[in-house]
């Protein structure tokens, strides 16, 4: 009978979550570098270079790959012969490990979990509770697989109850474009087929813990129908031309994972969950001999890719910005921002809307006139940082507030990640504003452009408070210009056509 000590279990959870916060799995880095090497789209290649550079910086600096340090998901396989030397429940031990990991002083992770989700949405301050799945199996060990799943990719999860005769390939190819780029491609797609509705979702999520091996699979050839389906979906999804960050390109997915389960004769449940550029997961086994230790990768495992600003990028003085200058920007332009901007995301926008609805004025330091807002919820700083990793959040969530912000505050540009929806696009076009895109998955790299940060309003909202950032050479791309031209439409369309041409040539 194996005895698993409470302290060992808690410490192993803590250590693993810290580990995955700054070390990408090496299979992901290898696959992403392969995508970088073959990418022909300049915009996508630039985005991948930022992600690879960011990844190496995080491995060196032991700081989070992404400002969204995720919701913790844990899969436990507990041996039937295991004896717990513990006073806490297994769930309480997991959550204590999460708590310690996210509050670890030398690498504070962002607390993103809110309780009372339907109403007050109060931040729990320590990123607990985790989502835990248990399986009791023969044996005398505890097998732990855990992930820190970002909200941008989790929000793009899809599910359908297909008819038994419906095509899985057709459903995936029709569904992936509806996911937009908020999941920060290139990443992985996890697909679950069968069981019941909840089982299909669980299969999809669990499949994302597997190693990326599409290159090896294609080299040796498929050995089953599911492997044939994986290859078919991989090729056809990439042929959609969505590309890195939705800018258009050859690589949208690095792998497609599929797990299945017997299901009812009348049913064909299917779930699809993407993993983003901040792919974070670990696997370890406890056998009673102490704390688990994950292998520490050497920096030589990272490719020698170092992102540099585009030499043709326009430098913008945010402190003297005018609507007239914004009108000269064209979709696809690269900009380097300098000066002061304000931040704000979901909760801040909701509070601003409530203030306007009550007839009150915004706090005096919240002046958006002729200014830019950055949709971000940064990680707390450590050591000599002015701010922790501070990459963009998904911009579509702010679409419902865009008309209000442009009409009532004098705001003239916004920064986020991925595409805008119809409501946001129409407001941008009507007010001749602009939407700028920063690269999701490059949060630590972006934070190095932030030279000063101070909270100016709504401090109680934590990472969702409004900050003023002073930035220097912050890289962004004009995604939507004042005329409504949109790179998230034009880029993928061009690369879909390019993919068809390449298919004909091969």
Question: Explain this structure to me?
Answer:
Helix 13 links the parallel strand 16 and strand 17. The protein is α/β, with parallel strands linked by helices. It is 33% helix and 24% strand. The relative contact order is 0.16. It contains 15 helices and 19 strands. It has helices at 6-22, 26-38, 42-61, 90-102, 151-154, 168-175, 197-207, 214-220, 225-238, 323-326, 346-357, 399-408, 422-431, 443-447, 487-505, and strands at residues 2-5, 71-79, 82-85, 114-115, 122-123, 131-137, 142-149, 158-162, 187-194, 253-261, 268-275, 281-286, 314-317, 334-343, 372-374, 413-416, 434-437, 450-457, 466-480. It starts with a strand and ends with a helix. The strands form five sheets. A five-stranded mixed beta barrel has the order 14-15-16-17-19. A four-stranded mixed beta sheet has the order 6-2-7-12. Helix 1 crosses helix 4 (90-102) and helix 12 runs parallel beside helix 13. The protein has two domains: 2-287, no CATH class; 314-491, fumarase (Alpha-Beta Barrel), CATH 3.20.130.10. The model has no long low-confidence stretch (mean pLDDT 96).
Global morphology: globular
The fraction of residues in strands falls at 15-25%
Separation of the first and last Cα atoms: 59 Å
Domains, number:
2
Class by SSE composition: alpha/beta
Q: Write down how many β-strands occur, each being a DSSP E stretch of 2 or more residues.
A: 19
Question: Main β-sheet, in a few words?
Answer: 5 strands, mixed, barrel
- The number of helices is 15
Q: Spans with pLDDT under 50 lasting ≥5 residues?
A: none
Q: Please state the average pLDDT score.
A: 96
Question: What is the helical fraction, as a range of percent?
Answer: 25-40%
Strand line-up across the major sheet: 14-15-16-17-19
